[in-house]
Write a structure and sequence with these properties.
Number of strands: 8
Structural class: alpha/beta
Strand content: 5-15%
Largest sheet: 4 strands, mixed
Number of helices: 10
Shape: globular
Order of helices and strands: EEHHHHEEEEEHHHEHHH
Strand order of the largest sheet: 2-3-7-6
Radius of gyration: 18 Å
Length: 296
């Protein structure tokens, strides 16, 4: 995955609170999708919420900027995105949101941009206070994506993904798929608390995978505001393979087999590795969000 060196990155779409101090003690499962999924993950993996860095309690206010706002000073151009993980993520956020803004407009709607929050260790959100153990998540309460960049190392070391820049991009695009669902009113369908291979929770996650694939299909043709040219200049078959590999790495069946030694489909919340790859591929091959109806 390569970026246009001359493109200007829009760091206003990222809030960098790494180094901030979050008030309070233990982390909290909030009332949004993030808390629900984290709690279900704890249940089907057979570990307690404390082991995931979670506990019950009241939500705490979001962390304030630390003054270390690294991305604002380090991430200025597409050339920076080719050399730094945080700048690459800024560029992916820019590209994803430029695509969805254009797609909503084409369909007669309005896309509301959502910032990504970079944090380290712990962060306060409208869905409660979460630790890095939750992984990347979207909070519908404040319509923000939350990401500890250390998760990309975990994706390789703990989940067995091959890594690669586009594997990281897939993760970001998946979370923005949830934002698209939130704007369209689909996300609430996952809040019925049910699990299982045919549950609404799984269908919501698979649709977000498909939306990530739709963005990938258009990534090299979506114009950047600063240049009028695509911010992402090339995606190779190897890049797409990295995305598919990342999708498989976070399939419920692979996670269950890895951590509990058996697969229990009745407790799935995200779908199997094969399903996640399949729906990303549907989005990538067609480039049509209308083909992402996982509820039919």
């Amino acid at each position: 995955m390569q970026f246009d060196d001359d493109a200007r990155l829009d760091t206003s779409e990222v809030e960098d609170v790494r180094g901030s101090r979050v008030p309070g003690g233990r982390a909290t499962v909030g009332g949004g999708i993030a808390g629900l999924v984290a709690l279900l993950l704890a249940l089907f993996l057979g570990v307690g919420p404390d082991q995931l860095g979670l506990s019950s309690g009241d939500a705490q206010p979001a962390a304030t900027a630390s003054g270390l706002a690294q991305v604002q000073t380090a991430c200025r151009s597409g050339a920076d995105a080719d050399t730094r993980d945080d700048c690459r993520t800024v560029a992916v956020v820019n590209s994803v949101q430029d695509f969805w803004a254009g797609e909503f407009e084409r369909r007669g709607g309005t896309y509301t941009r959502s910032p990504t929050v970079f944090f380290a260790g712990r962060v306060g959100t409208a869905c409660g206070t979460a630790t890095s153990a939750v992984g990347p998540f979207y909070c519908p309460g404040d319509r923000k994506v939350y990401l500890d960049l250390g998760f990309f190392d975990e994706l390789r070391s703990s989940f067995g993904a091959s890594g690669g820049a586009f594997g990281q991009a897939y993760v970001v695009a998946h979370e923005y798929g949830h934002h698209v669902q939130d704007l369209m009113g689909t996300l609430r369908r996952a809040q019925d608390g049910r699990t299982g291979a045919d549950s609404a929770s799984v269908r919501v996650e698979l649709q977000a995978d498909c939306y990530a694939g739709v963005w990938a299909h258009h990534a090299t043709s979506t114009p950047d505001e600063s240049t009028g040219r695509p911010l992402i200049t090339s995606l190779t078959p190897a890049d797409i393979a990295d995305g598919l590999d990342a999708a498989a790495a976070v399939g419920d069946d692979r996670i269950q087999q890895r951590y509990q030694g058996r697969v229990t489909p009745e407790s799935w919340t995200h779908g199997s590795s094969a399903q996640r790859q399949q729906w990303f591929d549907v989005g990538y091959r067609t480039g049509d969000m209308g083909r992402c109806d996982t509820f039919r």
